[in-house]
Design goal:
The chain is an alpha/beta fold. It has 10 helices and 8 strands. The radius of gyration is 17 Å and the shape is globular.
Length: 254
């Protein structure tokens, strides 16, 4: 397993001292390859936290440019970044935050045709994109490649986060959750419905915690559990998701 330098031991000391993580967990983080889909409000929370935690390779996938309307929630960007590629800026941010992180930007839109190629070789994928077409393409690819998927979404005042390993007999995939009604790219996004910036930070932080737990192998296995957050009432709920035997992604009857 990848060893830690003296400088890294100092940088991650407050994590390593946790008995649940220790040196073994920190080395797992350093050895991990995580793909982040989207540099929106969720991605802007996820990318700094994963980089600071010591994830060894961070692949950042986004084909978009910074827009002024992004700045209310996409806190890794600044006014002078408007019109520039978000993936490149996000990778620069991650490297500046932690020089031990290999941040790789991919300025490309992930779709059904390229999802497997872009995601192959990663240990975990964290999807914070803003449309169902991409989410379903990510789900299809991660299920086929057997890569754990943390899916996080936030709109208006509501957030949802789940960990999916749909190739396992008793675990659902993301499509088991949403079904087949969203096989298009014309569904509502936060651009139409609005979203509170602090909500995307809350959801992104929770999703990152879920990802770190999965990589380090700590805590209860929550694959197949959906966590729902209501920002107006500050309530969290958790719902167990059943596997759909007829799911065309992971079902045994499909």
């Amino acid at each position: 397993m990848t060893e830690l330098t003296d400088s890294e031991l100092g940088r991650y000391a407050r994590q390593i001292v946790l008995p649940q993580i220790g040196g073994v967990g920190q080395r797992r983080l350093k050895a991990s390859k995580v793909a982040v889909i989207g540099t929106g409000g969720i991605g802007s929370a996820v990318i700094p936290l994963l980089a600071a935690a010591g994830v060894g390779r961070l692949t950042i996938i986004d084909d978009d440019l910074v827009d002024r309307s992004n700045l209310q929630r996409q806190t890794i960007f600044r006014d002078e970044h408007v019109g520039q590629p978000k993936a490149m800026l996000a990778a620069d941010f991650a490297r500046a935050l932690n020089p031990y992180v290999n941040a790789i930007p991919i300025r490309e839109r992930l779709a059904e045709e390229n999802a497997e190629e872009l995601l192959s070789g990663h240990n975990l994928v964290l999807d914070g994109c803003d449309n169902f077409a991409t989410r379903l393409a990510v789900s299809e690819a991660t299920t086929k490649l057997r890569i754990p998927l943390v899916s996080a979404a936030a709109v208006i005042f509501q957030g949802q986060i789940g960990l999916f390993r749909g190739w396992e007999d008793d675990k659902p995939c993301y499509r088991c959750f949403v079904g087949d009604a969203f096989d298009s790219d014309d569904c509502d996004t936060c651009a139409e419905q609005g979203v509170l910036g602090a909500l995307t930070g809350t959801v992104g932080s929770f999703a990152t915690l879920m990802a770190i737990r999965a990589i380090a192998g700590i805590g209860e296995d929550v694959a197949g559990v959906l966590f729902l957050f209501e920002g107006l009432t500050l309530d969290w709920r958790r719902i167990g998701l059943p596997k759909n035997p007829g799911c065309k992604t992971c079902g045994r009857e499909s």
